[in-house]
Amino acid sequence: MLILLPPSETKSEGGDGALDPASLSFPSLRGRRRAAAAALRRVPLQDAPALLKLGRTNAHEAAWNRVLTSGPTRPAIERYTGVLYDGLDAASLDDGGRAWIERHVVIASALFGLLGAGDRIPRYRLSGSTALPGLSLKAHWRDAVADALAGTGEWVLDARSAAYAALGAAPVGSALLHVETAEGRALNHFNKHAKGALTRRLAETRAEVGSRDDLLAWAASAGVPLEPRGPADVVLRVEQAPLRR
């Protein structure tokens, strides 16, 4: 099983050691990573805040893209912050839970295409919906990401947002994760937190999952309100408050 998460626009500070492109998971994406980084660096610094949709309080984040190969790195699962990653709280997992995360979690990225949870990356600023001059992120990543995911041979639970799902389809037979209230209403803020909390529960229990049926059986045994939807997808039912661990 792979659980495919979206990234976060917010990034943690700090780290050590520079980016080593050869160390990243999914080596088939290396050339496209270089091309995406080059397109990002070509954006004049004075134009970058508007292109990247940054405000006055975070306009400085555009400068991160100038030091991609020299800035300090941290594991991707620690670099990304925000609601989903608060729900996952990888830093507080025990060694076995952390090992599960590093084996089973893949993070989508507009800059890197796909990342393993343990891949060490610098801070950067680029969202899946950004229109880079001279490079369509959707066209750039779509086939390469889809091929890389299919090449793993793993069943995929796709928890990405729409902008990142557009950068490469999950393999046929994968399940899309929906999050709704018991009444069937879609959520926003709590949607993200619930996806992170579900990932944490999977890691805490060292879940062995290879299909949707396996996932639903695990959920029933773990007391997780997960239901089938249609022929392939699943829906997580939550209250309008973060899942409690």
Structure description:
It comes from Amnibacterium endophyticum. InterPro entries: YaaA (IPR005583). Residues 1-20 are annotated as: Disordered. By secondary structure, the chain is α/β, with parallel strands linked by helices. It has one domain (2-237). It is built from nine helices and nine strands. It is globular.
Could you outline the blueprint of secondary structure elements for this entry?
Layout: E1 2-5, H1 30-41, H2 48-51, E2 74-75, H3 76-79, H4 83-88, H5 95-104, E3 105-109, E4 113-116, E5 120-121, H6 137-151, E6 156-158, H7 162-165, E7 175-180, H8 189-204, H9 212-222, E8 226-229, E9 233-237
Parallel strand pairs: 1-3, 1-6, 6-7, 7-9
Antiparallel strand pairs: 2-5, 3-4, 8-9
Helix pairs in contact: 5-8
Region (Disordered): 1-20
Pfam families: H2O2_YaaD
Protein name: YaaA family protein
